[in-house]
Amino acid sequence: MQRIIGFFLVLFLLTSCGTVGWKVQQAEAIKIPLDKETEQLADESFKAFLAPYKLQLEKEMNEVIGFAVQDLKIHGPESLLSNFSADVYRQVATTAIQSPVDIAIVNLKGLRAPIPAGNITVSRIFELMPFENELVVLWIRGEELLSLFDFFASIGGEGVSGMKMGIREGKVVEVTIGGVSVDKNKVYVVATNDYLAEGNDGMSQLKNAVKRVNTGIKIRDMLIEHIRKESEAGRKIAPKLDWRVYSENE
Questions:
Q1: Nearest to 231 by CA among 96, 125, 108, 113
Q2: Residue 75 included in any domain
Q3: Residues 40-80: pLDDT tens digits?
Q4: Where is 153: in which H helix or E strand?
Q5: Which of 65, 116, 177, 197 is 20 to 30 Å from 129 at the Cα level?
Q6: Distance (Å, rounded) from C-alpha 163 to C-alpha 175?
Q7: Per-residue pLDDT for 197 more than 50?
Q8: Is 194 or 27 the better-scoring residue by pLDDT?
Q9: Given this model, what pLDDT does residue 17 score?
Q10: CATH number (domain holding residue 119)
Q11: pLDDT at 19
Q12: Is residue 33 part of a domain?
């Protein structure tokens, strides 16, 4: 009896370890739009179950946290929205590490929606920053930054704070940090997001940081908190174009 049991046990192990040669022969898919027509097919009991959660979410998303004096749009070589975002990056990062941060870098493509003039709601910031990116602080040598700024010039500019750079025929000119020419051998403190810190969007130089600190602060949360605090202090969101990134061709 034990031999029979042992036989079937061995047989089971051998057959279970084998791979079955299944192949997909045909696959079909259809697109089902979520609109008023599909809404009519929704289960009423499930809709009733979700209703209080939906109301709570709408209440939170529609909360007015501040006021923009004008449309904050996204464009190069600099824009109101990128200037605003980069300034918040640098300010929050300085507080996070309790030490001055020299510059901040924000990718224009990471800003996914403009902020219209008027009341700013939580949902607007979710549209602007739908990702779960976090604030990161990097220590980077000036030589790497000059190479990075040349890349910025080649693509028409990026969002920055704490520095100034010109663009001439796709090359960086007259670049300064804190009003002083960049020292190739000096290590600068840079605030950015974790996506760029990994060298994405062509910013490979950021991977060569000599030191990195992950703050754990969500970009979206810090923007919401900053706008809310400005409103509580009686201030409106009113960034300006200050030629921190300019093109000599314009």
A1: 125
A2: yes
A3: 777 788 778 877 877 788 888 999 999 999 999 999 999 99
A4: helix 142-154
A5: 177
A6: 7
A7: yes
A8: 194
A9: 52
A10: 3.90.780.10
A11: 52
A12: no
Residue with tokens 């300034």: 87
Across 51-169, the runs of DSSP E, i.e. the strands, are: 64-68, 103-106, 118-121, 134-141, 159-161, 163-168
C-alpha closest to that of 224 among 153, 128, 116: 128
Reply yes or no on whether the pLDDT at 31 is more than 80. no
| Full residue range of the structural domain in which residue 163 is found | 61-247
What mean pLDDT do residues 24-36 have? 77
Asked if 66 contacts 154 with a C-beta cutoff of 8 angstroms, the reply is no
Task: Judge whether 236 lies within some domain.
Answer: yes
Could you tell me if residue 182 is inside a domain?
yes
Give CA separation, 160 vs 6, 120, 147, 153, 175, in Å: 70, 23, 15, 12, 12
- Give the pLDDT of residue 60: 87
For residue 226, with 0-12 CB atoms within 10 Å meaning exposed, 13-18 middle and 19 or more buried, which class applies? buried
* Strand order, beta sheet including 134-141: 159-161, 103-106, 187-193, 134-141, 211-218
Q: How many CB atoms lie within 10 A of CB 174?
A: 12
The CA-based angle 94-99-105, given to 5 degrees, is 40
Q: For residues 216 and 194, what is the distance between their CA atoms, to the nearest angstrom?
A: 10
Instruction: Report residue 192's pLDDT band, with 50, 70 and 90 as the boundaries.
Output: very high
CA distances from 57 to 52, 61, 130 (A): 9, 6, 16
pLDDT of res. 28: 81
What is d(CA 200, CA 196) in angstroms, rounded to the nearest whole number? 5
On the question of pLDDT at 112 being above 70, the answer is: yes
Provide the domain count of the chain: 1
